[in-house]
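The instructor's notes for this session suggest beginning with a concrete chain rather than abstract definitions. Hand out the sequence below and ask the class to guess, before any prediction is shown, which regions might be ordered.
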Amino acid sequence: MKKKINLLIVDDHQIFRDGLKMLLSHFPFIGEMYEASNGREFLDILEGIRPDIVLMDINMPVMGGIEATEKALAENSDLKIIVLTTFHDEEYVDQMLMAGVEGYMLKRSTPEEFETAILRVHSGGNFFSDEILATLSLKLKSYRETEEKASLPEFTEREQNILELLCQGLNNEKISSTIHVSPKTIEKYKSSLFQKTNTNNTVNLVIWAFRNNVVDITDSI
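After discussion, reveal the predicted structure:
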């Protein structure tokens, strides 16, 4: 039996946390579910447990999700965080993506979306709800119209292929099986992409690719 996925739900509304736990409990791959009512409580809980995935709200008392995410990832860079919020304002999207989250979805997402997001992020990929992609698409369209396009680095055919697959949310193992090279080789190509684009993680690389029109956002993730 595969190891189950342990979650930490960070949200200031008890009713929402209870409802989400009830929904997620129906998924056979979900293990322990922990709770925190604000960012400070979340950071305190992290001292004693290490969840596989964190579902993080943004607007909370005591400490909000953006600050809590930045502090948590500064200490635990491999922590996997999915933003879970009612907001898809571009300011929130930007701040959380730059903080280093692996996914961004709305609280009203369907059970199928929750399942896809959790499994994809747990396996090393990323996930954005359609509404978030729409927000990004409008923002990047505006960016392209108002900003002078910078000189782009040159990618090899293999690097371009891997970049496009990363933008579809695939993890190293799935990319490996798709293009028939080892996961270790994928990591080497990703390191080269990080260096060429001056990014330091997969999510920021994906955003860089969208922003510079290297891939088509409508065909990705």
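Then share the key points. DSSP finds ten helices and six strands in the chain. The two ends are 29 Å apart (CA to CA).
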